[in-house]
Amino acid sequence: MALEQLKSQIGGFLKANREQAFTAQNMADGMRMNSAAAYQEVVNAMHALVRDGEAIETDGQFSYNVNAGYVIGEYRANDKGFGFVKYDSELPDFFINPENTLQAMQGDTVRVSTVKPAPAPDRGPEGKVEEILTHAFERVVGTFSLGSEAKGMIGEIKLSDKKAMGFKVLVSGDGLTPNDGQIVVAEVSRFPDKIHPRELVAAVTETLGYKDEPGMDILQIVYAKKVPSEFPQAVLDDAAKIPVDVPESDWAGREDLTEQTLVTIDGADTKDIDDAVVAWKLDNGNYHLGVHIADVSHYVTEGSTIDAEAYTRGTSVYLTDRVIPMLPRNISNGIASLNPNVVRLAMSAEMEINPEGRVVNHRLHTSVIKSHARMTYDAVNKILEGDVFVQEEYAQLTPMFKVMGELHEILYNMRKQRGAIEFDAPEAQIIVDGEGKAIDIKLRERGTAERMIESFMLAANETVAEHFDKLEVPFLYRIHETPDEERAKSFFEFAKALGHPVYGDPSKVTPGMLQQLMADVAGDPAEQMISTMMLRAMKQAKYSPDPVGHFGLGASYYTHFTSPIRRYPDLTVHRLIKWYQSHGYGVEAQAKYADKLGQIGEDTSTRERRAIDTERDVDALKKAEYMLDKVGLEFDGVVNSALKFGLFISLENTVEGLVHISNLTDDHYEYDESHAALIGRSKHRIFQIGQKVRVKVLRVNKEERTVDFILVDPESAPTTDIRVASKTNGKFGKGRNREERRKNERRGKSEGPRQRRGNLDAKQGQKRDAKRNF
């Protein structure tokens, strides 16, 4: 029987019996195809159905794939009722009309069928939500108010999550009965439907405190983002069993490096110190660089309760006035922290680096170390700047710091020559008082010491990645893929329109092309604009077993090895290093982790994004809080996004706010996509990314984490020869008005205050310290 005919028969049978699973033998017997040749035809047909996505195989049994012909993705809601479903990082999203959303909420995982195919390569198909597979808001957090007009309900919850603030949450009597004004956690029992399209029903499971209590504003975000903030008692009990000092028995099999002059260099407030460094000049003109990382894997053993909790967390989360650690504090701040003048266990990467910045020799091994000094970035910066008083204070270490400074310059120039892209955006330090209220915002400055530690961590990460990639064994990498052709092409066209063309093929974009562009526009008024748009064209960095390299760094090999206290992928990398060193690199040794690394990469990447989102939301909350008493005051700012609904303005202190297009009253402004600009129809004033403006604070909403501005002097904006056709009477004509509006709505699906943020790993890496870079 022909393969396609056999596939059709078997596929139809599986579909008709979708609740059951069958072996190939079951199918062959049922079809009376019992000869060896006929049985093989059945096996081939069933495997072909699996490859085509029409069947699923589990332990040798085949069943109908209920998702055949559908796609599964994440629903993104629009306030106007329609939505989009992201299902592939490379392809345009599905557009979902209001009548086809099935009342899905932001972040829901949905199964979508195709209503209309994609009308163009840069626009997605139109779809219909057939089923909501998982709800993003199974648990909600907000302020409880007693009493409700709805029958059988005891009150309502005002949600703290911006993505769901438009929904009413009724509280049933099935759970706790909180007091009025308490912050509560509730489990949703009824989601929006056709009868109640903007309404949920939930039962309170936990009370966190009262709305105005110190720290409660941040705690709401933490709970809403589902960030685990309390360690289970079993984890704390197991952590308490870990010794506070390193016993002599733990020295066995490790190199004793306690006499080497290792130092740690961190921020003054850092308590979880996970790296120590040492450097000296070799007789042959090369440099020795030692990067020694806390051996967390010695204490956090695979499969333990502590390990399971660390995996659930994925990363430490750094908030304005607190840190939610990945590991219990007696590990992260205690036995695993490389505190000065105490013995610690480490994983060491020792490298010999030539004057061109290439690692010509290296060793990876376990060790016993002792930090000889706990240095701060500020002190080392002063030493490198020539401060004689600080140099005298650290007279024994100053010569080594000067060698480190030389080596950093070599490594920096090497990265620059290979095309690494530098994004050095300002980072805010939000100062809070004893009650947790934001009272000031300062800009963090990254001096040579911060950049030096960054260079050393990058060198170690690349060395470890290259070591295992060349061994061709399963390993976990930190990857940053090349921008896809469509995004690259759009960016190239944008840069060209500004008079700064990118030289090269957008289908084969290299870091060097973009680095050259940034060199060409350095100091130019268009620099900030091009830098921002370049960032948007980048993909997101992530963890993966596929060694595709790191585009932004211009690195062929890259992993995360240097922060196992605060990142689970680094802990995994340490385990892999130990495993291969103990068991060799053969097929049997490779099998242990080969099937696990893909899932670890996906899960840790997801949890990293959760942490980043939480950090951003807390920063936005505290920045809005800081601006509450600034209404009516004027500030200098810079346009960092020009969108069809207005301008996002960043102040010098990094506070961001919106000038809504309704408040641009001096003209009728329309959006020009090719120049990412708002242009006045009559007076032809233009507002673009990077443009300096003067703004007045119009209103501030702390709960929604928003700041609104108005322009003080819009007449001072430059004019342009660019003309934007009217959507009503311009070249498109009245007949295309609706079509163009819908097209713009589609294109605006991802436009918003967060869009310009972190696609590139480099950007987010600077959030807390140099070691978190990339």
Explain what this protein looks like in three dimensions.
This protein is α+β, with helices and mostly antiparallel strands. It has 19 helices and 33 strands. It has a five-stranded mixed beta barrel. It has a five-stranded mixed barrel with strand order 8-9-10-12-11. A five-stranded mixed beta sheet has the order 13-20-19-16-15. It is globular. Mean pLDDT is 90; it is low at 727-773.
Over the alpha carbons, how many angstroms does the gyration radius reach?
29 Å
Helix content: 25-40%
The total strand number stands at 33
What strand line-up does the widest sheet have?
3-4-5-7-6
N-C termini distance: 55 Å
**Uncertain runs:** 727-773
Main β sheet profile: 5 strands, mixed, barrel
